[in-house]
């Protein structure tokens, strides 16, 4: 498919004329064509108008049709074939196996949401039948179901050009909820975005849906992204990126005459807790696995293990020695954009320059735009005294914090900000300490895991990829897994509506065959 450098506004392909966006081939540093036109405010207005017009007919579709649409997007992405992978490799610098895996995850995610839509459980139907004889007052007939919020703005992430971008988890869950999507392409992978956008556009057409169900805009600066969040027709925002970007969009959304939710996944340093028994039993082994997780994908994951906590002693020293050796051996890796590479280099330099921070090891030198892994250490006293030591460094850098004792480990945990994940390494002897840490960890993170690291998020029903601020803007939800749909829904209660006016999902005869909560009890449909 020839790339045109055009945005997609409903069924149309439109060349924006507000500046240009060009991709960089991250392995050569050269610009790759075509040049993409940045959209204008009037393009944005048109995309939002179409999304608003599509909302009612799209949400009214039978669930089966919505599910088939999600599956059609998945197939259209697969039909792009190797062209998608090649373009994506060029724009992102990410290797083929990673991107093939990510495509599988993207397609799997869309198919998972198709199942979620068919199942209908996300409607969360509750029926409390009327109790006309109840004393002292009768109870009215109450019926609840979730409805979609309205058009959603999705900001593609730079670090997952497929699974968190144009047709990634935010888009899949918003479409599954019944919300049209206006996506804002990330300028790091404009060609990949156009290819995937065209796949979604084709699925819209093939399924006979209103064209405004999906649009894709390009922004040569920040005006289109900001305008999108401010547009009164947009009712929610999905974002993965920097803390600064997420906070800016949250500010715009909150300042609207009608504020809207922004689901921003921002910064996280994902503490790894090395408990004494585990350090004594297998410190060096954990260190090697840790460096593997640290350097995976040049460390460009929001789940990257950026902080290691342990109690000082022989065990922690054995871990550090083995981790140092593995980092020294780690090859440099191409980063996503020149900007991200530069931010990584300056982040590492700043960290190394802090009082009381020791550079333990740096990975091998690389070529242009290749980040070198970095391992640093400090004491808990220093960590507690310098808040800046908690700043996310996006890339393969991690800070080991030597704690004096259990009490100081707990103080450090109290001091850290909200996180996506915490990883515990333990043996049975560590269970009493782990049991004491768990309530505190629950308050700090969205996912607690044992024996591994946070990278490699499973797309599943029980997954939480979220956490307290600043890891996300709203720790009550997740951006990965089927629960992500709940971000784009809100409950409506129907009180004493005549049967003929009730939505199908709420009718007594249960024509959709939904599992519903009847008078508080789960009722499965009779076949
Ligand atoms: N924690 C995480 O998961 C990630 C963190 N990052 C951090 O972000 C840095 C920059 O990477 P990017 O991916 O470009 O993130 P970014 O936050 O700068 O941009 C993400 C998206 O939001 C838009 N955006 C950002 N600020 C905006 C504003 N003020 N107004 C309107 N639109 C705005 C951008 O155009 C882009 O589409 C990295 O060096 C890293 O520090 C990046 C990716 C993921
Ligand atoms: O590690 C993963 O699979 C997902 C990480 C993520 O969501 C991110 O880096 O933005």
UniProtKB/TrEMBL annotation:
It is an enzyme of class 1 (oxidoreductase). It catalyses: 2,5-dioxopentanoate + NADP(+) + H2O = 2-oxoglutarate + NADPH + 2 H(+); 2,5-dioxopentanoate + NAD(+) + H2O = 2-oxoglutarate + NADH + 2 H(+). Its EC number is 1.2.1.26. GO terms for molecular function: 2,5-dioxovalerate dehydrogenase (NADP+) activity. InterPro entries: Ald_DH/histidinol_DH (IPR016161), Ald_DH_C (IPR016163), Ald_DH_N (IPR016162), Aldehyde_DH_dom (IPR015590), Aldehyde_DH_Superfamily (IPR050740), ALDH_KGSADH (IPR044151). SUPFAM superfamilies: ALDH-like (SSF53720). Gene3D superfamilies: Aldehyde Dehydrogenase, Chain A, domain 1 (3.40.605.10), Aldehyde Dehydrogenase, Chain A, domain 2 (3.40.309.10). Keywords: Oxidoreductase. Pfam families: Aldedh. Residues 20-424 form the Aldehyde dehydrogenase domain. Belongs to the aldehyde dehydrogenase family. This is 2,5-dioxovalerate dehydrogenase.
């Amino acid at each position: 498919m020839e790339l045109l450098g055009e945005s997609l506004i409903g069924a149309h392909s439109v060349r924006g004329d507000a500046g240009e966006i060009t991709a960089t081939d991250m392995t050569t540093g050269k610009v790759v064509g075509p040049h993409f036109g940045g959209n204008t405010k009037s393009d944005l207005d048109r995309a939002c108008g179409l999304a608003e017009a599509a909302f009612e007919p799209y949400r009214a579709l039978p669930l089966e049709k919505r599910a088939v649409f999600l599956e059609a997007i998945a197939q259209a992405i697969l039909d792009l074939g190797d062209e998608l992978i090649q373009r994506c490799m060029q724009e992102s610098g990410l290797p083929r196996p990673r991107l093939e895996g990510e495509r599988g995850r993207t397609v799997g995610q869309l198919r998972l949401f198709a199942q979620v839509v068919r199942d209908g459980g996300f409607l969360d139907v509750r029926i409390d039948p009327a109790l006309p004889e109840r004393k002292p007052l009768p109870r009215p007939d109450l019926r609840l179901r979730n409805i979609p919020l309205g058009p959603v703005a999705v900001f593609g992430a730079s670090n997952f050009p497929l699974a968190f971008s144009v047709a990634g988890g935010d888009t899949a869950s918003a479409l599954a909820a019944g919300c049209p999507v206006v996506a804002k392409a990330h300028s790091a992978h404009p060609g990949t975005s156009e290819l995937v956008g065209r796949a979604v556009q084709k699925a819209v057409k093939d399924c006979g849906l209103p064209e405004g169900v999906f649009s894709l805009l390009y922004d040569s600066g920040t005006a289109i992204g900001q305008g999108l969040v401010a547009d009164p027709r947009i009712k929610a925002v999905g974002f993965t990126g920097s803390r600064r970007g997420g906070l800016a969009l949250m500010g715009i959304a909150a300042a609207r005459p009608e504020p809207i939710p922004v689901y921003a996944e921002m910064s996280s340093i994902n503490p790894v807790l090395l408990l004494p028994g585990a350090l004594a039993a297998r410190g060096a082994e954990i260190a090697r696995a840790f460096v593997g997780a640290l350097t995976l994908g040049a460390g460009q994951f929001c789940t990257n293990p950026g902080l290691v906590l342990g109690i000082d002693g022989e065990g922690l020293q054995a871990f550090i020695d083995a981790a140092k050796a593995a980092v020294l051996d780690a090859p440099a890796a191409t980063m996503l954009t020149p900007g991200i590479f530069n931010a990584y280099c300056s982040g590492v330099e700043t960290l190394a320059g802090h009082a009381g921070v020791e550079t333990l090891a740096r990975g091998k030198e690389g070529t242009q735009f290749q980040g070198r892994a970095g391992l640093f250490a400090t004491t808990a006293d220093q960590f507690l005294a310098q808040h800046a030591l908690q700043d996310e460094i996006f890339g393969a850098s991690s800070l080991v914090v030597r704690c004096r004792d259990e009490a100081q480990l707990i103080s450090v945990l109290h001091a850290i900000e909200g996180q996506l994940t915490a990883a515990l390494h333990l043996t049975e002897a560590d269970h009493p300490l782990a049991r004491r840490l768990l309530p505190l960890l629950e308050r700090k993170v969205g996912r607690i895991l044992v024996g591994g690291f946070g990278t490699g998020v499973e797309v599943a029903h029980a997954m939480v990829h979220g956490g307290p601020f600043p890891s996300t803007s709203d720790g009550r939800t997740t951006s990965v897994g089927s629960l992500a749909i709940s971000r784009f829904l809100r409950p409506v209660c129907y009180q004493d509506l005549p049967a003929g006016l009730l939505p199908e999902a709420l009718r007594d005869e249960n024509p959709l065959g939904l599992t519903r909560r009847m008078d508080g009890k789960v009722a499965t449909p009779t076949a």
